[in-house]
Write the C-alpha cells for this entry.
Amino acid sequence: MFAATACGGGGTGKDGGDDGKAPAGAGASTVKDDAPQAVVRVAPSDGATSVATTGALRVRVERGTLTAVTVRDAKGARVAGRLSADGTSWQPSGHLAASTRYAVHATAKDARGRVSAKDTTFTTLTPKNTFIGYYTPEDKSTVGVGMPVSLSFTRGITEPEAVEKAVTVTTDPAVPVEGHWFGNDRLDFRPEHYWKPGTKVTVRLDLDGVQGRPGVYGTQAKTVSFTVGRSQVSTVDAAKHTMKVVRDGKQIRQIPVSAGGPGHTTWQGEMVISEKDPVTRMDSQTVGLGGEYDIPDVPHAMRLTQSGTFIHGNYWAATSVFGSQNTSHGCVGLHDRRGGGHNGTPASWFYDNSLIGDVVVVKNSHDRTVAPDNGLNGWNMSWADWKK
C-alpha cells in the first residue's frame, strides 16, 4: 500500500497522465521554438574605426522585419534614415559626420512576433584634407531684396550634388529656392523673383563629412539666418544721367549721376550691392586700366561687381557733371564732398539709405549685360537657366 500510494500522484502512462518528467528531447525543442528567428546585421562591424561617412552604414534583417533603428552620435543627436518598403533594411538619409563615434540600436521581429535586438558602435574617418564654404550674407544681418545666399568653397568641388544636398535654405514665408553653380567653387541660392520684404531666411550648412572631391571632406556644421528688409530698387538711366530710387513700390528720390564715359561704359543689368565702404582707395591698375587714376579716398563706395564697378561719391568732378555727362571709368558717380560722412550730398544720402543686398539696375549704357557671376548678380539669368 505504501509503495502504491507513493507512486500514484500523477496517474499511469496507460491513463495518459504526467509523471512530472518531460519526454526525451522535449526541453530542447521548447527552447528552440521560443528563440526569435530574426537576425539583425549591422555594417560596419562593432568597434570599427575610420569608417567612410557615406555608403558604409547599413542595417538589415534576415528572417524578419525591422521594427526600429536608432543611430546617435556621442552628443545624442539622431541620424535620420529610411526603412525599405519591405522592412528588411535601413540606411541613413544623408552622410555622417567625420571623426565621430556612433551608436546603433536596432530591433526586429520574426513571423511570430518574437523580438531580436542588436547594439553596435563605430567611429568615422578623420580626413587629412578638408574644405569649408565662406558664406554671404552674414549671420543675423538685415539685407536688401536682391541678396542671394552665396557660398565660396576653399577647394574645387567635383561632387556638386553631394555638396548641394548638404546645404538647406528655408524661408518664412515659404518660397521655392534653387541653387546654381558658378564653376566648381561657388554655389548661390535665390528665389525666382526678389525676396519679399520681411522674409526670414535660414541656411543650414551640413557639410561635415561630405566628400567634395576625392579624399577632401567638408568640416562645417553651421546654421546662418538673415532677414530681408524693405524693398529698394534703384534704376540708373545712363542716357538721361539719372537714378530713380524706388522703395516699397514708390519713388522716393531722383538723383543726378555720372555713369561710364566713352570707352568705359557701365555694365547694364541688375546688380546687387555686395559691400559698403565709407571711404576706399580706387587704383586703376587693380582693374587693368594702367595708371589712369589712383584716388586714395573715394567716399561712400558700394560695390556692384567683383571686377570693380561701384556706385560711389565723387568730389573731384564739378557739380554740373552730375545729371549731364558720363565721365567715369565704368562706375556710377554721385556728387559728394571729400571726406565723406553725413554731409547732406546725394552720395551721402544714398549710402545712408542703402543696404547690402539692395538692387541697382543700369539701363541705356550701350554696354553688355553684366555676367551673372561678376558679383552677386545672378538675377541676370532666367529662372529656367538658373535651375539647370
